[in-house]
Amino acid sequence: MSRGRNFFRAMVRAPPTGSRSTAAAGSGRCPAQRRPGSAGSQLEAGPAMSRTDTGRAGSSRRGGCLRRPPTWEVSDSDAEGPAGAEEGARVPGPAEERRAAAKALRPEQALRRVAVRVDPAVLEDAGAGILLEALSTLGCEYQVETQRLARSLRWTRAKPDSCPGTVPSEVWDAGEQDFLLLLEPEEFLQGVNQLTQTCGPPCSVPWISPEGSTSPHVAVIGLDAYLWSHQPSNIHETRQPETAAVARTAVALSWPRVEEALVLLQLWAHLDVLLVASWQELSRHVCAFSKAFAQRPRKQYRESRAFSFCVAGRWAGGERVARDGTGLRGVWWRQIRQFNRVSPAVADAVVTAFPSPRLLQQAYRTCNTEQERTALLADLPVKTGDGARPRRVGPDLARRICLFLTTTSPELLLDLGS
């Protein structure tokens, strides 16, 4: 026992593998052994040397002088055979394509592909910094570029790097654009004056060229304050207008005329006009529109599916139904409860007698007369508490359930009390 302890201590004091003293480890010597004449004496090995002298075979079996097994390194080129090529050329399955499409359509991913192009004329206003700061906080990219319409914003969308095949190509339409034109109150009122003086439908919108393929949205900042400051009672209290034409236009147009022009623009030109009081309000609208523009492909993809109202993997509420049909009885019970004046005990009685609507419809088909069908459920017993009077489903509810499952008229009223 003492020899084993001394041997273990000698092995613990031995230098670790990979140090300079173990350069000759491949020769089969123990790390604690040293050649005569080298640094140190043979006494440093202590009992370990005598242990190895008495029987090398036993020490090799006990792990005193075990050789390290050879290790095999696998390089990257080993996987470049036929199996590696087949793995690289493997076509993704339907489940992988659905996951890739869902990832590409996520709101945070979609917002990164949206860019807002800002016309340099917008930056001339002192409140433009609020707009740019709001876009930076949103995480949306913006670029200052000269636009076809002065003082306008343009939204563009880039395609993802890999377009999943399960998503229609029109969803990834990179050519889709939206415009927002910023107008001064004076410029907007001059255009409104032209629209209200035209007899019949307007041929063109004053601020937009007819050659444009897309009708932009229009935003006017501070129109309410401008109209109030140019009322006849406030003209002398405020600064004089720059031109007489602008003064006459502001005085002549009141809110009823402006509202009339807004309706005309929306009906005939399909142009939405946004009236905001400050740049802060405009910034909130631009951020909300950027989010809606980014999520538009996701909504289009959801509407293009067969059941757009049913989202895979989600359950909005109600009784959960599994693929094997578990839960359908609970749905049928809830459907009976939707009728007026139906208690849980009455619904239990109907579901116990007919566990599914199909079974009840088959029972209705076996009836010979209409009176027999409407009274089929009337005599079903309803479980009540101890000592309570026995109850039945009754003819009223039996008639309503019968009409619900057999009628073909969508205008029929099921409730007699309605």
TrEMBL record:
Query: Biased composition, Basic and acidic residues: where in the chain?
Result: 95-104
GO MF assignments: crossover junction DNA endonuclease activity; DNA binding
For the region Disordered, what residue ranges are annotated? 1-104
Q: Which Gene3D superfamilies match?
A: 3.40.50.10130, Crossover junction endonuclease EME1, DNA-binding domain (1.10.150.670)
GO biological process terms, alphabetically, are:
double-strand break repair; mitotic intra-S DNA damage checkpoint signaling; replication fork processing; resolution of meiotic recombination intermediates
By its UniProt entry, which InterPro entries does this protein fall under? EME1/EME2_C, ERCC4_domain, Mms4/EME1/EME2
Segments forming domain ERCC4: 115-365
Where on the tree of life does the source sit, at the highest rank? Eukaryota
List the keywords (alphabetical).
DNA damage, DNA recombination, DNA repair, Endonuclease, Hydrolase, Nuclease, Nucleus
Subcellular locations according to the entry: Nucleus
SMART domains found in the cross-reference section = ERCC4
Q: Which GO terms describe its cellular component?
A: Holliday junction resolvase complex; nucleus
Which regions are flagged for Low complexity bias?
A: 80-94
Quaternary structure (record): Part of the heterodimeric MUS81-EME2 complex; the complex forms specifically during the DNA replication phase of the cell cycle.
Family, per entry: Belongs to the EME1/MMS4 family.
Q: What is this protein called?
A: Structure-specific endonuclease subunit EME2
Organism annotation:
Acinonyx jubatus (Cheetah)
